[in-house]
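Record format v2
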Amino acid sequence: MDSALAVHRLHFAFTVTFHYLFPQLTMGLALLIFVLRTIALRRNDEHYRIAARFWTRIFAINFAIGVVTGIPMEFQFGTNWAGFARAAGGVIGQTLAMEGVFSFFLESTFLGLLVYGEKYLSPRLHWFSSLMVFLGSWLSGFFIIATDAWMQHPVGYRLGPNGEILLNSFSELLMNPWIPWQYLHNMTASVVTAGFVVAALGAFYLLKGNYPEFGRTFVKVGVIAGCIGTVLMIFPTGDRQGKLVTDHQPVTLAAMEGHFETMNGAPIALVGQPDMDHLALDNPVLVPRVLSLLTYQHWSAQVKGLKDFPRDQWPDNIPLLYYSYHVMVGLGTLLVALMALAAFFLWRGTLFVRRPLLWALMLAFPFPYIATTAGWMTAELGRQPWLIYGLMRTADGISPRVSAGNGLFTLIGFMGLYTLLGILFLYLIHREVDYGPLGEAH
Amino acid sequence: METIWFCLVAILIAGYVIFDGFDLGTGAIHMFVGRTEKEREAIISTIGPVWDGNEVWLLAGGGTLYFAFPALYASSFSGFYLALMIVLWLLILRGISIEFRNHIHDAMWKPFWDVIFGWSSGLLAFLFGVALGNVVRGVPIDANGFFFLPLWTNFQPGAQAGVVDWYTLLTGVAAFAALILHGALWVVLKSEGQIHTRASAWVNRSWFAVLLATVAVTITSFAIQPHLAGQFSAMPWGYVFPLLAAAGLGGIFVFHRRGRELHAFLSSCAYLTGMLTSVVFGVYPYVLPSNSDPSRSLTIYNAAAPRYGLEIGLWWFLPGMALVAAYFVFAYRHHAGKVKVS
């Protein structure tokens, strides 16, 4: 039973991590494509039209992989997490079904028009399609966050006579206080990913000397989006998300920070490895009192340590949670610094000739992906050992009749298939980058 | 309320079968109807802008099933675990093959993606038929409401049956034939010249196969699942569903001969709807009968989400689907007309 639990967790974790590499770009890129299309329409500018068309091609490849790897996510609620599906389907089935009805149809219909329709739609209708694709993808994000928010912070339910979870307020489900900050944090992170990717490709073209006029546009659009995005990602959205965890999941906060002892004026750990044998941080580099300040806005506030929480409430993989959180925060800090620097030189008008900075922009694009993945790992590992916080243990959510062996078999299968998908994806992107915005007609 | 959602889920599944059905069928025959690369390109372009939206009916249907009948979703998805993993692989392979064949203009690789696309489309059509057959036949639900089915056992549709037995094999073949016919009618509607002629020949051939399969499936279904007969005799108005299927099948034959392409295609939609609704009407109020102990069957009552959620769901579901209808009208109007081989 224990190993089946591990297998089902890994099954979902692997497939969702791979899947989310694609939507995190497409959601941000949908906004940027809409911006490019708007500029193109208002100025009747062919340059921006070509830029939008180019990024729509990149979008479409990402979208396709996002769709085919997204279907297994919906299926897995039933195939691998049947216990959870039966207990909570009446609640989160609402948000998941709404995603299908309100966003998938919108997105897919208008993406078809955006990609294929430029010849036969009026410019205004074609622009409208880009708006609808943006709206559809951001709605999709909303319903997924609403689902996850309910698992992090269940609201709007009551327990039936046999302990079953019964939805009793639809409006509370959709107005869960957990949603706004988690949603905005996630969506700004998605804009950051898109900003970095667009800027990286622009930097590549500038360094290489290919399509310099597009290189400049891409760097400009990417840096502006990335700069706004990184700032919003940290403040207020990241900060407020952290406050929610502090207030509602204090044990998670302690584990994320590697904070074992309750104390007043708690320090924050910049470096250190949780040592679970001695319940302490190895070789810690601490900044005094900052954790108290960040969590309770007071230098000497008391922050409860892990040791003062019952052991069965602790997240079950504290080192990984701690590392994920620190990688997210560390990378987030680097990303905002890089974008601020780039934005400064963009404003001064010298960014396009500063080759070291262009190199940094080009090489930095994997980091928002890593930061986003680490952020999601923080959220999901931090919720453990609960599947629905305080309501249902993860161990109770798996499919009772699907054995560890069957789960492992299909997990390995997905690993193989997704490796192949990844290779094909990189090949296609490489081709598009090679053809460039003005390349071979498609 | 449970019955309303039972009908709404059935409508979503019918939407899936009608819409994704024609691109599955088109995918399965495009290698044969299109002999040259250019012809295949033209056939694929009839579904290129819409196949993804069509597949969303599956996701919306799945999501709605999850929301309205969580116990059914949990039981059936975990019980058909291995079969559904195969379906997932096929959906993934199909999705990437149509995208990649459109991106990679290479004489060596195009036929490769075409073969993947054709096989995955055909196999999916077959497997959806098998799935429907399983719902009619029933599965060995345990005391906790779960089961786990091997892919096949001794091919007998008894209590030891696997996912595939001779009966579900038959329903799979019937679905395969019906979607081939449906796809061929779509290609006829959307094409001209050589492709049109060949697709038309496929209609003629597959029509007889569908007729045979329909008769065979009807007879065997009543034999396998006695509940069907009871249901139709208790509520004779339900005969309207098989009559719709029969009228659709007849309509395809008549309209196709007269060259009324749109009418023939719509008749095929009626046929598919009629067949599907006959099945769901016949099994009602079951959603997944147990073939070991009837008292363990999942019905719309014991599998449904609580009342409150179902009631509130109507408030967003109906306007949501009205929007969907608007998108589809919009998209298909812009995708009207026949394609030409370039």
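Residues 212-248 of chain A form the longest helix (37 residues).
The CA atoms of residues 244 and 267 of chain A lie 20 Å apart.
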